[in-house]
Amino acid sequence: MKKKIEIIFNILIVIFVVVGLVVMFTYNSDGNELVSHGIENFKYFTVLSNVFCGIVALVQMIYDIINIKKHREYKEIIKILKLIATTDVALTFCTVAFFLWPIYKMAGMYQGSNFFFHLIVPLLAIIDFCLLDEGIKIPFKITILSMIPSIIYGAAYITNILINGIGEWPDSNDWYGYLNWGYPVGVLIFAVTTVMTWIMAAILWKLNNRFITTDKELND
After folding, report:
1. Statement: the pTM of the whole predicted model exceeds 0.85
2. What is the mean pLDDT of residues 103-112?
3. CA-based nearest residue to 209, from 131, 126, 146, 128
């Protein structure tokens, strides 16, 4: 039963990511939200992480439907990718829900594509990974890999600014405002974000191990 529900959740994740992308390209922003125009939105970690989450959900959905039980290594790879993807969207969800929303109270954070990318997709992914997963457990050391997307994104973000300059709003290359207090503080923010990403991954790993139904249990 859990596997069937998990397949449904993966289908929903894929659908809502696609819907979010469609809305992203068609929705007329009033300027009171964290969105840009069309393809320019792909500069945001939120959009990239949700697309990655949708791709991983699609891969797992196909894997589960085909039901290739013999290839354990594929299960492990998918599980690792799923942990990384869920961690990324969970970080986005928590950042908006517990930091940006309480401070700025911007309704746009949950309007348009943000409704799907800041709320719906992250919640589905978190519930799926923590409560519906079946198969294998992965070692705790794997949680370190969850920091890779944040490190790559942070490096690209800073490199772009070093090459092209900060610029001025609304065409600033520092669209998150991390360098408002200078480069040292900006680097510190990215470092803290990376550590928070690992902590998020550790929490998800713990919850997954608490509620997972393993292959051995399924066969007992």
Report:
1. yes
2. 71
3. 131
